[in-house]
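Appendix B. One record, verbatim.
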Amino acid sequence: MRILRTLCTAAALGLLAPAAAYAQVEPGGWTSYSPTFSEQERGCGQIDGLNFRLTCSTGSGDQRAERRYATYSSGTRQFEGSFRITSMTGSRISLKQTFNESGSGPFFMLAVENGGRLYRVGGDTIAGGATVGTTVRVNTVHVVGSQHRTYINGSLKHSMSSPGGSFYDKFGTYRTDSGSGPIQATWSGVQFWRK
């Protein structure tokens, strides 16, 4: 009884680690870490904390508001974050990238069309439901030199082979070659693990 009271008191005071501290997909053997990042604002891109927006409707030029995280080149990495599009009159905007720094550029780009379709740039539909006001959780698991897997709201939606090399994660709002703004998206719950 005393142990139960102690646990309840600790939980009430917020002393116990929340469940969100653990990797949400592919459990087992993960270690959380906090990579450094830089911010990229170009064209009409604006960043305010975890709010990312493209304010213009131009269909040309480098329009981006993104966080770019530190490079990695080995092991297995997991990214997790949730986005909520708060306004969007544009379309075909990249929200999350796994970038190949070894020369081939964007390796994986998760983008959204007006109407809520999530798709891999250069590929097929990944999921629907990314409509204005809806929170969507994204997990990517990247085994360098082997495979890259994408989960939407905890369900595996896409898998592709991965080369070796150096990579980094990016998220925010980025106009694809066929896209245009405006868009505003807020990210939350961003976490990283490795093993």
